[in-house]
Design goal:
The complex is a heterodimer of chains A (about 110) and B (about 110). Chain A is an all-beta fold and about 110 residues long. Chain A has no helices and eleven strands. Chain A is globular and about 45 Å long. Classes of the chains: A mainly beta (about 110), B mainly beta (about 110).
């Protein structure tokens, strides 16, 4: 069964304290892996798409990486405005284009 | 934000009543999706559409129906709402299936008493 697991469920950091969020997945074949950010009371906002192991993408303080079993979202020197829930989703090659979503990691950055 | 609106944004209804949620897009994207989001769960796909009058079921379609008579509008109907359908509902759009980015609307919070 295709599955996506995100860890930790919640992460509290001090401003400037770098860390990583994990998204591990089990699919028969990966078509793509997606990262989104979701603020309270809002819809998910697209961040990155990764397609193959070894691929990396960056946006401001965020960098996403991909291996054959997991993806990491690295946050460097975070600021309070980076506080949000980060969602990971994968699409399998035999999924009829449907995305399988993780439950998310709630990130809190304290000033 | 992508041009996606959802209405209503909040709704409280009673068990057994019909409810229709609307998603409207101004991007002329071909694909539209309805998801529900519940605490402790990832987003779960209810139904999706790949064109006018072309729809298909998702992971959790029981109790829901959809219609798409125009490119810009995708309606989600709960024929007889139940308390288990209390959730936040999100509409998403994409220009292509799968690999193309899905853009989300602001969501509708539905409470079924």
């Amino acid at each position: 069964e295709d599955q996506v697991t995100q860890s930790p469920e919640a992460l509290r950091l001090q401003e400037g304290e770098s860390s990583s969020l994990n998204c591990s997945y089990t699919v028969s074949g990966l078509r793509g892996l997606f990262w989104y950010r979701q603020d309270p009371g809002k819809g998910p906002e697209f961040l990155f798409t990764l397609y193959s192991a070894g691929e990396e993408k960056e946006k401001e303080r965020l960098k996403a990486t991909l291996t054959k079993k997991e993806s990491f979202l690295h946050i460097t020197a975070p600021k309070p405005e980076d506080s949000a829930t980060y969602l990971c989703a994968v699409q399998a090659v035999d999924s009829n284009y449907q995305l399988i979503w993780g439950a998310g990691t709630k990130l809190i950055i304290k000033p | 934000d992508a041009g996606i609106t959802q209405s209503p944004r909040h709704k409280v209804t009673e068990t057994g009543t019909p409810v229709t949620l609307r998603c409207h897009q101004t991007e002329n994207h071909r694909y539209m999706y309805w998801y529900r989001q519940d605490p402790g769960h990832g987003l779960r796909l209810i139904h999706y559409s790949y064109g006018v009058k072309d729809t298909d079921k998702g992971e959790v379609s029981d109790g829901y129906s959809v219609s798409r008579s125009k490119t810009e509008d995708f309606l989600l109907t709960l024929e007889s709402a139940t308390s288990s359908q209390t959730s936040v509902y999100f509409c998403a759009i994409s220009d292509m299936a799968g690999e193309d980015t899905q853009y989300f609307g602001p969501g509708t919070r539905l409470t079924v008493l």
